[in-house]
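During the second year of the project, the team shifted from modelling isolated chains to modelling whole assemblies. The rationale, set out in the original proposal, was that interfaces cannot be judged from single-chain predictions alone. As a representative example for this report, we include one of the complexes processed in the last quarter. Its constituent sequences, exactly as entered into the pipeline, are reproduced here:
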Amino acid sequence: MFIEFFFTLRERGIPVTPTSFLRLQKALKLGMVRSIDDFYTAARAILVKSERYFDTYDQVFAHFFKGVTLLEPEDLELTEIARAMLEEWLKNPAEMAQALGLDEKALKSMTPEELIRYFFDRLKEQTEAHHGGNRWIGTGGTSPVGHSGHHPGGMRVGGRSRSKSAIKVAMERRYRDYSQEGPLTEFQMGEALKRLRRMIPTGPRDVVNVDKTIRETMRNAGEIEIVFDRRLADRLKVILMIDNGGWSMDPYIAVVQTLFNYARSQFKDLKLYYFHNTIYSRIWKDPQRRHQAEPIDEFARRDPETRLILVGDASMAPYELMHVNGSIYIEQRESNASLDRLKFLSRTFRHAVWLNPQTEEEWDHTWTVGIIRQVFPMFELTLDGLEKAVQHLMAKH
Amino acid sequence: MNQKNPANRFRGGSRYVLDDELAKIVNVSMALEMPLLLKGEPGTGKTMLAYAIAESLKMPLIVLNVKSSMKLVDALYQYDTLTRLNDSRFGDSSRDVSRIEDYIRMGKIGQAFVAEERTVLLIDEIDKADSDFQDDMLDVLDQMQFDIMEIDRTVTAKNRPVIVITSNAKKDLSDPFLGRCNFHHIAFPDPDMMRLILGVHFPNLSQDLANGCIEAFYGLRELRGIEKKPATRELINWVRALKADPDFQAKSLSRANIPYLGILFKKSGDLNMAAQQIARTR
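Output from the structure prediction step:
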């Protein structure tokens, strides 16, 4: 059952597995699923494993079941509508008249039976969902009823419905915010960068080392000798260099800001520097790049185990990178081309990556990106890219 | 759903407002005997759900709070070597040093397995542990048994516990892990739902105060640049504070006048940002 539904989900990129599909069949067999609403929730809980796909699921579901239920509305559902209609008619005749496109007086003169017959006649006129028509059910129609009328059971003509029909829920696309297109948040970055830690024993010796205690006790002929160790703490040094100049980085300010905030709050030993486009003889500690300069040569004295992360779009004019006097600031006189400086950094720090906020497809359009990629391994500044970058930074090499 | 056995169906606890969707998912997971993985913003009641299930089904609740340094074996059982060493040296306890069983203590998962009745096992904040822990744990929960290496004994679950796993992370857990769980994402409640939730926690809350608080609260969630938005938990604490303040008038609550901001915003940056934006609307 629902094999086509399963494959549509797969086609739309939701990683549904055959195992989970079989599990859904089991749920159906157990009699757990008795209505389309049940099916909506059960299938989602069993098949879809991340809220990022909920939005796609909603779309597929609405697309898939809209047609099916419209072709053969079940008697039960029709009775339900009739009942809801009558209730509403008793409560609020004026609104009902308007909804049915009838005069209020004409409506009042109708018996309940006539009213329901009128309603069913309207329903039969509709053989398929149509949007924008002047008949009844369908979205965007000129008829005042049923903005969500794809599924007769879901169209409550009466007051506010307490439980919504699954298709209506699906049509709302409540999970749009969680779908994959969403921006990278600090929280997600935290998840990706969590692995970027190096545990080193520090502090007082206050943890019992059981293995050593046993060994020492045996050596001591059974006289207990307890061995204490230091706790493990994160002692990773990180240098973050951010390209904060030029209009080319402007679109990425938000995402870089997020990375920056996260890094500053999480890493105990973090040094931040700023540059514009690429690195020459100096790099700045202040974001204005004016007051606190630090010569690049000084970095040779840093701990080579420090992780170096450069963030920038790596896009500039080729001469800025290759020429000795390439700096776009005229007062700056250089002895080496910027590329040599970058090579120096990558030689000094074995664990270095370049994070590029541009998507990987765009990289080929800029010549300097290709050159810098030969010096530093480059990753996208996205969740996937961050994860790969962290893997690279923590790899032993 | 399972009509034959109404006593074993979950309908919500006395302090927990459950939406239909989630109730269905809990029941499907129980019928399929699969762990239910819950994700959602912090403070949306992921942990509370397990408490509510336990209360509603009258089962004991066992909570495993996952820590980043935790190893799977800690959750299963613990072999208390130090006590044994001590006993072997001084020999003044009732335990038999040659019987290793005497020094095995069950961890939280172990407790759920050996319990005489069916339990609810809450595995809280699974994302804190590394992925090896997660996968290995699912193996154990799948097979409903584990080995105690020291005494070469296999512990098999007497009753399959109802397993609820929570995760705060927006990052996905590993595929094999997800494959063995049912999944639900608890969306942030809408104002109507929130009114119900407040009603459950404060049965005699005045309509004025409830409306004012909810309006102000959703307004505050819309503020720009807030890193940790206030969630249900913060709202409940905030209402509690407002009720405790004898000088507070429900009518004085407005967009420009919001007391006890510190309860809603837990990060100093957020607090400053919120205070600034509120001051600007004044």
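Residues 68-77, 126-164 of chain A have pLDDT under 50 and may be disordered. Chain A is about 45% helix and 15% strand.
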